[in-house]
Amino acid sequence: MTGQIAFFIQAADGAGNVALALDHGNPFVGFASSSATPPSATTNPATNVASTSATLNGTVNANGSTTSVQFQLTKTSGDYSNPTIVAATPGSVSGTSDTAVSGSQANR
Predict the structure, then answer these.
(1) 1 pLDDT above the threshold of 70
(2) Domain tally, the chain
(3) Side by side, which strands form the sheet with 99-106?
């Protein structure tokens, strides 16, 4: 990886609630209207950062709903209009406790 890299994490549950977290935990959050508690997501610092790869890290709390998880990667902080989608492991979480998630990105 070269140049500035920004990433955020997105978590979405089956009710359409979506949580986004930007820049190491500074959240940007948008939620659809629902009686369920929306999921929450926090980005953590990337690890194993090299010239062509990095491991993206975060934490997701599904707040009682099955929640899909992915990372979205961009080279320009603040420009999230056309991100690269990076699969998270695990790709889905459930329950009411924080779950660590990660994603490997190479050749960017």
Answers:
(1) no
(2) 1
(3) 26-30, 18-22, 6-13, 67-74, 84-93, 99-106, 53-61, 40-47
